[in-house]
Every structure is written in structure tokens, then in C-alpha cells.
Amino acid sequence: MHGSTRPVLISRVPVLDAFCDLFDLSPRVQWREALRIQALPLIPERITLIDPPLWQKTEAAFARGNPSDAEHWTAAALIMLDLWLWLGFETTAWAKSPFAALVQLTQALEHPALRVAHCLRDIMMGNEFRLQDLDAMIHSPKPEYERLFQEAFRVDSPTKKGKIK
Q1: What pLDDT score does 18 carry?
Q2: 3-state DSSP call for residue 11?
Q3: For residue 154, is it left (φ>0), alpha (ψ between -120 and 50) or beta?
Q4: Rounded to an integer, what distance in angstroms lies between the CA atom of residue 93 and that of residue 125?
Q5: Which of 105, 85, 88 is CA-nearest to residue 96?
Q6: CB contact at 8 A, 106 and 112
Q7: Rounded to two decimals, what is the model's pTM?
Q8: Which of 5-14, 87-96, 139-148 has the lowest mean pLDDT?
Q9: CA distances for 13 relative to 33, 41, 47, 120, angstroms
Q10: Burial zone of 79 (CB within 10 Å; 0-12 exposed, 13-18 middle, 19+ buried)
Q11: What distance in Å separates the CA atoms of residue 122 and residue 38, rounded to the nearest whole number?
Q12: Is residue 148 predicted with pLDDT exceeding 80?
């Protein structure tokens, strides 16, 4: 016999296995195939942070002085993306950052997510004095900071001594 009648097994894709484990999906082979065909192709269009028009729209909102709450969160995420790019690709190019103007427009704002993002950026740039600011935000009794660190960074509330999980 020249061919095999056995079905070809799907190549192992770690993210698919993680989904199957996380949601206890079975039968595993069928779920991995369904996820591979239905979900994986949609991932690139759902990752909006790497979309330059989003960067421009966000920056323009701050330049006009009328950013929404969602744009505050997007700006904070873009500053965190800037950190990731700096860490992974170029350690001397802060001035070349595609987010340099956004950083300038948002650095004095009081939105908690922006304050944390700027603080982390400053620490990465070598400003060790900002470690105290970060510690103060982590241990802040203000609900907006408490919620931010609990949800985004998995930190217990300040009453539980702010331990990272």
C-alpha cells in the first residue's frame, strides 16, 4: 500500500495546548484543530498595539487635549510597549522611539496607568529615585492604584503587604 490511511496529526502549537489545558477542552485533538483554524488566524488583527494608526490616533487625542479614558489606558500600554522595544532591541535609542511625542504629551498627567508606565520608563532610563514612587503607588490605599496592581500585576492589596504573586 502506497499511502497511509491514518490521519495526519496536527503539529504541536504550544499556545493551543495552553488553551486546551486552561479550559480543560476535550477531545484535545479536535479542539486544537478547531482553535488552529478558527482562532489563530484572527490573532494578528486583534493585536492593536502594533498598529501605527492607533499610535497616531492616541497621540492626536492627547495633542488636542481631549483623550478618553480608553486613550489614557492605550497610551500607558504604548509606553510599556516602548519599554519592551527598548529592552529587546535598542538600549541607546530613546530619542528614536516612535512614542517619544506621546511620552512628552502624557508625562505630567495623573492617570494611574500613565503614572505607573512613566515611572517604569524612568526607572529603565536609570532614574533610581523613581523606585520610591513605584513603591508608593504599589502600596497606595487609593482604589484606582489598588485595582490596577491587583488586576494587571497580580499584587495583593496594601493591607496584605503588597506581595507579588
Answers
A1: 82
A2: coil
A3: left
A4: 11
A5: 85
A6: no
A7: 0.68
A8: 5-14
A9: 10, 13, 19, 33
A10: buried
A11: 41
A12: yes
55: Cα separation from own chain's centroid: 14
Binned at pLDDT 50, 70 and 90, residue 103 comes out as: very high
Q: What nine digits make up the cell of 118?
A: 512613566
Does the CA dihedral 30-35-38-41 come out positive or negative?
A: negative
The CA-atom distances, in angstroms, between 108 and each of 24, 50, 62, 65, 104 are 45, 25, 12, 13, 8
C-alpha cell at 15: 499556545
Q: Which amino acid is at 30?
A: Q
Letter for the amino acid at 80?
M
Query: Which one has a higher pLDDT value, 17 or 76?
Result: 76
Residue 82 CA to residue 60 CA, distance in Å, equals 18
Percent of the chain as helix, strand, coil, to the nearest 5: 65, 0, 35
